[in-house]
Amino acid sequence: MGFRFPSLEDLNANFNQLRKLPDTIGFELTNLKKLSVNSNKLVFLPYSISHLTNLRILDARLNCLRSLPEDLENLINLETLNVSQNFQYLETLPYSVGLLLSLVELDISYNKITSLPDSIGCLRKLQTLCVDGNPLVSPPMEVFEQGLHAVKEYMSDRMNNGGASNGSKSKKSSWVGRLVKYGTFNGRSQKTSSSSGAGSRHRHSHDGEAFMPEYRTIDGIASPSYLGMFSPRRLFSSPRHSFSR
């Protein structure tokens, strides 16, 4: 399948029955800035997605994603990545997430992720991290309660100390070299100070970073045409990470 609109900047394919995207999408829609494919039945995203170097927003929530492409580092302009609500299907994130140099918002809520890749600590521009509804054990909950700055510091320390996460140590070592090359990791933890109280629902660090674990409304969920897709059991079957007072 070929695309007749190579200059296309915004592609919205939400609320369909898509099970896969064209393998060549990343090679043909090179000017794409926003790709919205939420509320489909996608099992994976094609490898060519990593060639969308102009992409700024990728919304792939409410699918059946088992994994994400390993080579995400070419998405140098990506600011928002939303892969939330793939529920029991999405269990891990690729280590290359730490090479998304422009990433500001990452939403992985309502999946089955137990551990964040250590490379998360290298996302210098990250301001919002949504992890609600995952059975996370790493970082531990007490780290999340201190805010995003603490999460990034914890992950940086793990990388600096050689802790294992999301794969073998040999695989991880190869990624550390790439992180250093891209200038996102210098081998030392990045310490920041918190300026908010421990009981705050939305936590802010001194440099304006925010940790927002709250569940947010899905676009179009109230539309009568789609109400059947979202049963209460499906939406709330995962454990919640609550930070209320």
TrEMBL record:
Q: Which GO terms describe its cellular component?
A: cytoplasm
Feature: compositional bias, Low complexity: 187-199
Q: Which UniProt keywords apply?
A: Leucine-rich repeat, Repeat
Specify where the region named Disordered lies, as residue ranges. Answer: 186-208
Against InterPro entries, the record matches this protein to: Leu-rich_rpt, Leu-rich_rpt_typical-subtyp, LRR_dom_sf, LRR_domain-containing
Q: What PROSITE patterns does this protein's entry cite?
A: LRR (PS51450)
Q: Which spans of this chain does the record mark as coiled coil?
A: none
| Repeat as UniProt keyword | yes
Q: Which SMART domains match?
A: LRR_BAC, LRR_TYP
PANTHER family recorded: PTHR48051, RAS SUPPRESSOR PROTEIN 1
Question: What is the protein name stated in its UniProt record?
Answer: Uncharacterized protein
Q: What is the lineage of its organism?
A: Eukaryota, Viridiplantae, Streptophyta, Embryophyta, Tracheophyta
